Amino acid sequence: METRIERDPLGEVAVPAAALYGAQTQRAVENFPISNLRAHPLFIRATAQIKKAAACANAEIGRLAPDRAAAIVQAADEVIAGKWNDQFVVDVFQAGAGTSHNMNANEVIANRANEILGGRRGEYRPIHPNDHVNMGQSTNDVIPTAIRLAALDLLGDLQAATAELADALRDRATEFYPILKSGRTHLQDATPIRLGQEFGGYATAVEAALTNLEATRPRLTALGLGGSAVGTGLNAGKRYRKAAVRFLSEQTGRDLYSAPDLVAAMQDMSPFLDLSGALRHLAVTLTRIANDFRLLASGPTTGLAEISLPAVQPGSSIMPGKVNPVIAEMLNMVCYHVIGNDTAVMMGVQAGQMELNVMMPLIAHELFQAEQVLANGVRVFARRCVRGITADAARCRHYAERSVAVVTALSPVIGYLRAAEIAKEAVASGRTIREVALERQAVPPEQLDALLDLAAMADAAEW
Fold first, then answer.
1. Which label site among 143, 269, 327, 358 has the fewest CB atoms less than 10 Å from its CB?
2. What are 180's strand-pairing partners?
3. Residue 3: phi, psi to the nearest 5?
C-alpha cells in the first residue's frame, strides 16, 4: 500500500496515501484492532452536522475566513450525504470520550476541504483539522451532542415501528373480541376472558412503552455544544454557542437548545440512560408478549393452540411438517440483546468522573445498536407475525366451558367453600362445573345458566 508521511504531536505516522483521514486516525486504527465494528452511519452524519454548524457559526462571528468556512461546509455536506463513510475507520472500542472519532471527522473534513480549495491530502493547508474544523469545539462537547442527534434519528424509526405494532395488536383485539376463552393465572385455569381483551391488553402495554420512549426526547434536545473541554466554554464563547446551536437546529430540523448548565451536560450522561431504560421497558414488554404468543400457539395437537401464528419457514431439519414460532423467538433474542445493551449503557453512564464521562464511545455504540435492532425486530414482528395471527374460536370456547374457574361466578350465591367443593368434584370426575352444579342442585337451572354465562363473566367490568 502506498503511504504518505504525516506528523502529529507524537511524531511521524505513515498514512495510506489515498486516505482522507490522517495521522491521529491512523494511530487509532493501529492502537485499537478490537472488534471490526465501526461508527454508526448516523453517528458519522451527526458529527459532520456539528462540524458544519460550527463552521457556519465561526464564520458568522468573524473567527473563520469565509472561503475556509465554505470549503468546510461543502466537505461536511459530503460526509452528511454518506459519501465518505468508508473513511471512518476507527473501532467503536477506542480512546475514552471518543477523541479518535472526533479527530477522524476533523481529518476527513479538513483533507476534503483542502482538496476543494486546490490543496493535497495530508498537507492541511489552508485548513487544519484542529485549528479550523475543530474551532471552538472539544471532543467533550462534540461527542455527546452527536450521540443525541443520532439517537434522536434512530428513535424516530423505533417509534414508527412500535406504533405499527400497537396498531396491529389493536386490529387483532377488534377482530378477536367475540371469541370467549379461559383466562389463565399461574398458568392455571382462571375466569373467562375475551381473546380480544387479551390482545387489547398487549396493545395497551406497547402503547405505554411508546409513550415512555417519547418522554425521553426533551432531555436529548438539550445540547452541551459550546461547553468545549469542561463546560466552561473556553475557546468557544457565548456568541459561538448560540450561533452553533441555531445552525444545528436549522440543518437538522429539530428544536434544539443550549443546556442551561453546560458543566452538567458534560458530566452527566443520564439522558442516554433514560433512553436506554425506555428501550429496556419496551424490550421487557415485548418479551412477555412474544412468550405469551408462543404459549397460546403451542401445539398444534398437544398444546393450547388457541391461536395460530403465520407459518414463515419449516421448523425442523428432521421432523417433517413441523412449524415453529420463529418470529416470536427472534423477538425474544432481540429483546435479550437490548437488555444486555442497557446494562452496558448503565455501567458506562455511572463511570463518569469529574467533568467528563470517558465511556461515551461505549454508550453510543450500545445505544445505537439497541435502537436499530429493536426497531427492525419490532417491525418484522408486526408484519410477519401479528398481522397474520388467526384464532380457533371453537377451541377457545371449549377450554372456557371446561375451566373449573367458572365456579367463581357461583361463589357470591352459594359461598366460597361450597363452590370449592363443586370445583374439586368437577376436576376429580372430569365433568364440567355446570354438570356438577346441576347434579347438586346448587342453584335453580335458570339461575345457573345466567351465572355461568361466559360473555357476562368476561364483560363484568362493563356492568
1. 358
2. 194
3. -130, 165
Helix residue ranges, H only, 268-359? 270-296, 326-350
Is the confidence at residue 70, as pLDDT, over 90? yes
What is the percentage of the chain residues whose pLDDT exceeds 90? 99
Q: Write down the CATH superfamily of domain 403-462.
A: Fumarase/aspartase (C-terminal domain) (1.10.40.30)
Contact 366, 348 (CB under 8 A): yes
- Average pLDDT over the chain reads 97
- Region 234-239: mean pLDDT is 97
For 129-146, how does the pLDDT look when each residue is reduced to its tens digit (9 = 90+)?
Answer: 999 999 999 999 999 999
Domain regions of the chain by residue span: 24-135, 142-393, 403-462
Which superfamily does 142-393 belong to?
Fumarase/aspartase (Central domain) (1.20.200.10)
Average pLDDT rounded to a whole number, residues 107-125: 97
d(CA 436, CA 328): 40
- When pLDDT is averaged across residues 227-253 and rounded to a whole number, the result is 97
pTM: 0.96
The neighbour count for residue 388, using CB atoms within 10 Å, is 15
At residue 462, the pLDDT reads 80
Distance CA 64, CA 58 (A): 5
Q: What are phi and psi of 23, to 5 degrees?
A: -60, -50
CB 361 within 8 A of CB 101: yes
Is residue 374 classed exposed, middle or buried when 0-12, 13-18 and 19+ CB atoms within 10 A define those classes?
buried
User: What is the rounded average pLDDT of the residues 81-109?
Assistant: 98
3-state secondary structure of 89: coil
Task: Name the residues annotated as catalytic.
Answer: 186, 316
Residues 225/233, Cβ–Cβ less than 8 Å: no
Using CA atoms of 313, 316, 321, 324 in order, give the dihedral in degrees to the nearest 10.
Answer: -60
Q: What is the pLDDT of residue 461?
A: 86
CA distances from 110 to 329, 364, 396 (A): 47, 24, 67
Query: What is the three-class DSSP state of 452?
Result: coil
Spacing of C-alpha 63 from chain mean position: 40
- The CATH architecture annotation of domain 24-135 reads Orthogonal Bundle (1.10)
Instruction: Please give the Cα distance from 22 to 26 (Å, whole number).
Output: 6
